[in-house]
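Please produce the structure of this protein holding iron/sulfur cluster.
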Amino acid sequence: MPLDAPVLFKRVPTAPWGSANERIYVDYDDYVAQDGYAALDKAVGMSPQDVVAEVKSAELRGRGGAGFPAGMKWSFLPPPDGGPRYLCINADESEPATFKDQILIQFDPHSVIEGIALCMLACELDTAYFYIRGEYHHHREAFERAIAEAYDRGVFGENSRMGKINDRAPNLYLHRGAGAYICGEETALIESLEGKRGWPRIKPPFPAVAGAFARPTIINNVETLANVPHVILHGADAWKARGKGRPDGAPPQVPASFGTKLIGISGPVRRPGVYEEELGVKLTDVIERLGGGPAPGERIKAYFHGGISMGVISQDEAEQGVELDFDIGKKWNNLGLGTACITVIPQRTSMVSMARNCARFYSHESCGQCTHCREGSNWIYKMLSRIEAGDGATRDLDMLLELATSMGSMPGHNICGLSDGTNWAIRTIVNKFFGEFEAAVTSKRTVSLV
Amino acid sequence: MAWITKNSGSTQIERRDEPYLSDEVKDAFNKRYAHRYPSRAALALPILHEIQHHHGWLPFQAIEEAAAFIEVEPSVLLDTATFYEEFFLEPRGKHTVWVCQSVSCEIMNEGKITEAVREKLGIEPGETTDDGRVTFMKVECIGACGGAPCALVNETLHENLSPDDVAGVLDALE
Ligand SMILES: Cc1cc2nc3c(=O)[nH]c(=O)nc-3n(C[C@H](O)[C@H](O)[C@H](O)COP(=O)(O)O)c2cc1C
Ligand code: SF4
Ligand code: FES
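Below is the modeled complex.
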């Protein structure tokens, strides 16, 4: 059943409730006129523990890629000890094919800011840094404007309606990145915030214990935080009425997929864009109903369903009933839901070229600390370029798979998840479309390499 | 590749008498940013952005001045600067064009856009036109995939580009 009313996109016109052409910047007053900051006013009268408990019972899972339950993350913080405590908002949004957070940042920044304030109250964090990727110029200006409005209206600063947090005036600052995908990884983001290269840290210690400036730190995605006002205002049960619960009879530790999700659609469809739907919606339904189906003359072959790092889903699988929820990885042999931003791959596009594009990305964006990731991704890229040029051999395919499989923080060879992305992107493309790769290595060379 | 330090120790350092960071710039910067972070070292990215905003790139002398200003060793700030794609350690053109090359854009014919830019400017990605007017770069996903293929021209995003649009966009630059 299609979503009855938008939650995150309540103030952002989006089909079927409105048209993307009507989008405007929602300023402080417009936001307040539409329920804005009501959740914050409510939370000011609650104890921090109760706010955390509400988010925990809503089972709100992170929207930045990994799907970690936000309430649980928040409860890992040690008790306040009088020193500063930080919130880092992850607005790095650099995963290829992902363009969902930018809509909220540009058009409804106060929904994010209210979520930030709620998180600061709940977790007793005094200072928040909004880490935004360097290439978001227009978005940065919109968000700066919203921050200034929030200070003016007593959300942050000396006269904050939240009073003092941790004996300090609550503050929110924008911090601009400078073009490095890896700074979206939470510990790389912290390093970058501290003025260093974006090199992910070895964990533990986890950021909740020693994060930014070696102090307790929470890191959440933009969309995750933008969901918090709704959860606090309407309660966990209202949140859990949407999306997909656990299967009947499953114990509570089985993760569920409650709530709605922003879903980006790009590639050759009639209506590319960002939409909101309930978790658990069918992939084919998203493409047909929201995306308007394939563009004239195009046939769909596959999808990157959550940014490239989650791997691919074939059209065959999609037609067997792939649903966009946090179980997608286990059920359909990919890394997970990721960012739920879908790239449609048409029949005319070669999967070898897609794999080559991904490998180039990982090789380019690897921070270089770990050998498998730094050397492996570059090796894979070279091999795929060679195969694409028609100069590959069958043994290359075994080597490709062996290399890809060896990479990742999950095999335990690498520090961070970037290499798991390399692993899953390359491995699922090669495995699910092996025929194309076989054909590429047995056909004659088509391009001169000299 | 983020892990390659672009300029080596043999880089010639050009110096000038006039400082890159004037006292006014430093004062204004301190007022705006210093209270935000518990350490001065965290001012690295903001100060590098500030220099690049004024000069278009990061001259080594400016990095030295900035390092003294934020109380770190020049090598430390240089280390940071070399990591990030957006920082230019060599002069670049008056304008910069970044064509997105990630998956959604490649599927939507980024190749033809790149070809059109190459033809129009007569340079390869990574190069600057002889008159110093335009630098041509390729970039990974710029978060506008719904409008693929797309490109950033300075700070302006151009979406749903067709090869025929390219000349017009480039001619509109001064
Ligand atoms: C290589 C890499 C890049 C990432 N990039 C982003 C990003 O751009 N935005 C984001 O929100 N999370 C990103 N993440 C996930 C973050 O590490 C982290 O899990 C997330 O910000 C936590 O927020 P959430 O729990 O609210 O989702 C990335 C992770 C990895 C390994
Ligand atoms: S896995 Fe790759 S990106 Fe992550 S820390 Fe290691 S080298 Fe850097
Ligand atoms: S793939 Fe080009 S903007 Fe995202």
